């Protein structure tokens, strides 16, 4: 390990080696390789969260796991334990650039085009090894998508690799994020797709100009064309591929033609207590469940191979207040931690979300975002209804993001009166 940066930095994406300060202590974020953790890993992470943190764990929108409430004096012990699990990168830069999201059911889902786990691992390895790419902006992200039931079409990424079929052949299309969505540059073979993504990363750095925070979508047209010309030499020409809309998570038992392959479990707002995770992980080990897949919907998927195992695991998850039903209204609400975990607000966003959840049908909202402040940590995309902290009240915003200007306001105590408010606004 070459760097153990104890200094926490506000406003950065936290990592394991670069924790971020929050209202309840340091946040330590773990980037699981190819979005996969074994049941043993989860059991160990639960123990680490109890010993070194405040016992609260988050499943994040970028399919990571974060341990909350860590104090500076406990970091060395936490790092030592993570290192023994193989969950610590050699440096905070190598960790930060390894920002790769994989569709969670790859390798399990019979409806996918191909298993992209090896491709995702190869890309992670190349990003961590190639120091020039450490200059990519902090939130610069990659998606590797084998498609299928839980495709990542609805998630945004600076560079996207998506499995496609051209005739009888399986290829990987490479797309970059543009102002109006993904722009496809061409297709590579599965074996060379990581090379193409790395080449696109270098090409971006060559053309991005002086603003080191700019993302792929910020490139001017001329720079994008220049980049296209560089990367396209490695790729076969393809037609533009339409992307599907936002994928809704599937929970409970997942099967194909009666053959069960996964059990989907969500944590309300992504928050799970270490004791609950410990119980689930220990049961999984006993049942022979080998691994879990993390997803961008704040849920995870246990890789099970029979219905009885899935049912046993799901029953215990439900008994611990986890969500196993896709129609649960809490899934339609993105709520940031709010107070007291975050010092940027005095509002308890998640209490507000729980009070609002039973009213979603009446409100006619498919997705709601409750944000303690305009930063909008829990959701960057627009939502049907946004409640954003404004002093001791929530500003009300329709069909936009938390950064928009609210026109109406509601006190937290009046939140259950929102339906008439929303209807008349
Ligand atoms: S959006 Fe929520 S979690 Fe993010 S800074 Fe604001 S109050 Fe804190």
What distinguishing features does this structure have?
425 residues; alpha+beta; Sulfite Reductase Hemoprotein, domain 2; Alpha-Beta Plaits; 5-stranded antiparallel β-sheet; 11 helices; 25% strand; disordered N terminus; binds iron/sulfur cluster
Short description:
The chain has helices spanning 39-52, 75-84, 92-97, 117-129, 193-207, 221-232, 274-287, 307-319, 349-356, 360-363, 418-424, and strands spanning 20-22, 25-30, 36-38, 56-59, 65-70, 100-102, 142-145, 159-166, 169-178, 181-188, 252-256, 259-266, 271-273, 291-294, 299-302, 333-335, 368-371, 383-390, 393-400, 408-410. With 425 residues, it is an alpha+beta fold.
Taking all Cα atoms into account, the compactness measure Rg is 21 Å
What structural category do the secondary elements indicate?
Answer: alpha+beta
Mean pLDDT: 93
Supply the number of structural domains: 4
